[in-house]
Amino acid sequence: MKNFKFQYILIFIFGMLSSLSFGQEKNVANSSDSNIKLRHLEDTIGFPQYKWQMDSILSRIEPEDKLSTLEINKATICPHDDYAYAAGLYKKTLSSIKANTIVLVGVAHRARNFNLKDKIILGSYDQWETAYGTIKISPLRDRLLSIIPDSIYMVHDEMMQLEHSLEAITPFLQQKNNNVEILPMLVPYNSFENMDAFSEVISIALSDLMKEKNMKYGKGLAIVISSDAIHYGNEGWGSSNLAPFGVDSLGTAQAYNKDLKIIESFLTNEISEEGVKNFNKITVKEENYMEYNWTWCGRYSIPFGILMSNKLNLLLYNEPLKGTLVDYRSSIHNPHIQVNDLGMGTTAPANSKHWVGYAGIRYH
After folding, report:
1. How far apart are CA 99 and CA 192, in angstroms?
2. Structural domain tally of the chain?
3. What pLDDT sits at residue 35?
């Protein structure tokens, strides 16, 4: 686990308070591949690459998942698995996200390929390719990078290009608001101490920028955290057996119910740092934060994202966020959407020996 020296903490917390107060900014260096400005689609099997595909998916989502809401939420946890399995929950979960600027907090599935850890990952792209054309990167990204210390982030376009967990969400945001802009960040391997300190710095910076731009939390800016829940089974996970309860109906039910208990205990109702820390303890090994304990792929995106979202609300409104479960589903417990005739498909099987859970959670 990373050791934070006293001077390091001073830079993060007290130094940040000072620099933000006096509006000190630094120049932002371009990434090593400064010519790449458009991020291209990475997954064109599980997710759509054309508008007509997205329109078809939307038409096939169950009516109850497409109900409009007057509710305006400040943050959500949204899945990122294949649309065939989870599109309805995307739509239902994101229906209350109505801001024009969305901070997207994603997983860094391939962080090990680049030895990325102990940082927050951002990119230097101007736009992302989507099923609806392109989606703009918010100017707040570069303002944010000009404020926060270099020591807590890395601009890494290759990681941002290879990661699918955020591109899954963008069509649903654009479908509601074609003018929406995103501020994407990825969270690779990080200790809880890292995520706590980094979220403190970034929430302070966002708070200042929102005040400067007169942006309201929820109406002007919202946060969407990307994560699938349990990855379960004893086949198709490399050499790993991810089925501690077995793969019969009883074992599957135990895993399903454990996920529900985790959500109820730590990710809903009034959010607290202690609750987020306990979620982190359940999902990563205490002796090695780079190893799974309970296999949610959002074992870093969720703690960082919830801490940041909650601290931002405390800074702006002096009260913690409250979370409500939209629904919990899985790739084997809910009906699938037909996608094969759309030139799409699935990137992994869905059966008792290989399945994934999905949590949709809203925060206000």
Report:
1. 29
2. 1
3. 62
- The pairing of strands 101-107 and 181-187 is parallel
Distance from the Cα of residue 263 to its chain's centroid:
16
Q: What is the pLDDT of residues 126-172, one digit of tens each?
A: 999 999 999 999 999 999 999 999 999 999 999 999 999 999 999 99
Report yes or no on 300 lying in a domain: yes
- Residue 192 domain flag: yes
Owner of token pair 């959407």: 337
Q: Which domain holds residue 125?
A: 6-363
Query: Whole-structure pTM over 0.85, yes or no?
Result: yes
Which two tokens mark 214?
Answer: 């007169």
Strands 355-363 and 38-39: unpaired
User: Following DSSP, what letter does each residue of 141-194 receive, concatenated?
Assistant: HHHHHTTS-GGGEEE-HHHHHH--TTTTTHHHHHHH-TT-EEEEEEE-B--HHH
Question: What are the residue ranges in the chain where pLDDT is below 70?
Answer: 1-36
Determine contact, residues 31/124, Cβ cutoff 8 Å: yes
CATH no. for residue 205? 3.40.830.10
Portion of the chain with pLDDT greater than 70, in percent: 90
Phi and psi dihedrals of 136, rounded to 5? -80, 150
Kindly state the tokens that stand for 322: 């409250």
Residue 20 CA to chain centroid, in angstroms? 26
| Residue 1 located in a structural domain | no
CA angle 49, 229, 119 (to 5 degrees): 80
CA distance 45 to 155: 27
Which one-letter DSSP state was computed for residue 342? G
Place of tokens 């390719």: 129
